Amino acid sequence: MNADLRLQLCNFLGYAKCAENHVLFRQGDAGELFYVIISGTCRLTVFNGKQEITLGSLEAGDQFGERSLVNSVPRAATVTCVTKCEFATLTKDIYKRNMRNIAKDQLKSRVEFLSTTAIFQKTARPMLFRSSYFVESNTYNIGDVILAQGSVADRVYWIQEGQCKVVRRLTREESTTAQAIPAWKPQRPHKLELARISPPDSFGDYSLLTRKKMPYSVICCATPTVTLSCDMDDVSLCLTGKANNGKSNRKDTSMMLEMAENRELLYDCMFHQSLEVRTQMDVQGRWLSEMAEFMGDLEAEGECSLGKKLLRRSLSGGRGCSQA
């Protein structure tokens, strides 16, 4: 949405203030307003024919209500104010006139993207359309750390646009040959780049499902980089249509966990291979430096030809050398 359209829409924004426990609208109601939460928290619930099920919550900055306005269908859920709330609103006519095509295109684009990801390839389109409202979109710039090594992920991320790098920080425990690295500085630990990831790659899922700390950092390396993300409840909602109240149901997420485990194993192998190569290069660099210093000493003592022969012999592994 360009700046001119945003400014134009601001001229038509309404304002609503609601008390705690006020029901904004109920499942099945006709859609009349589009809402943006200015302050407060709302709860989304649906009735499955037997009981009321909580799908999730919305907070300041979140928006809702566009589905009914875009597609002219009844409200899909009931929205209740958990606390006192303030809203910016747009009427159905204004919304249709200015945002219908934009929202519809964005929603379609999001669903199309999710359907290309491995975890959602077999998810029915109606379920993806319904669940896409709970998927969060964020934009990052070069250098932004999306997930830091040592943290526990509370969301799973998919790269929709751009690129990120997977970086692992070395510790003394991981580097069994740390003393072979001449420039080792504890206050500035070395880092290894393991991979570059791009659409529709995902990350954070293994940490989210197992509650284990991230063994690496994911850092934005292209501007802009756009991610879609959702928490455990949203993952379950997208896969099964049911929220798990923050708990991981292994049956529902078994394929997701298997793919995440395979990816973590690949990154771990890449890390150890990179560490081995780097260590060999550092050891070789130190060895060559020592040999050059030794040759310099010989040259200073008038034994230049001998020094060169010894260096050539060492570099060739001792093959084809002549007696000094």
Approximate helicity band: 25-40%
Order of helices and strands: HEEEEEEHEEHHHEEEEEEHEEHHH
Q: Which outline best applies? A: elongated
Cα gyration radius (Å): 29 Å
Report on the architecture of this protein.
The chain has 324 residues and is of the alpha+beta class. The protein is 38% helix and 25% strand. Strands 1-8-3-6 form a 4-stranded antiparallel sheet. The chain has a 4-stranded antiparallel sheet with strand order 2-7-4-5.
Spell out the key features of this protein.
324 residues, alpha+beta, 4-stranded antiparallel sheet, 9 helices, elongated, disordered C terminus
How do the helices and strands line up, and which of them pair or pack?
Elements lengths: L2 H8 L3 E5 L4 E3 L7 E7 L2 E6 L4 E7 L4 E2 L1 H6 L6 E4 L3 E7 H7 L1 H17 L8 H7 L4 E5 L4 E3 L8 E6 L2 E6 L21 E7 L4 E2 L1 H6 L6 E4 L4 E6 L1 H9 L9 H51 L3 H12 L9
Antiparallel strand pairs: 1-8, 2-7, 3-6, 3-8, 4-5, 4-7, 9-16, 10-15, 11-14, 11-16, 12-13, 12-15
Helix pairs in contact: 5-7, 8-9
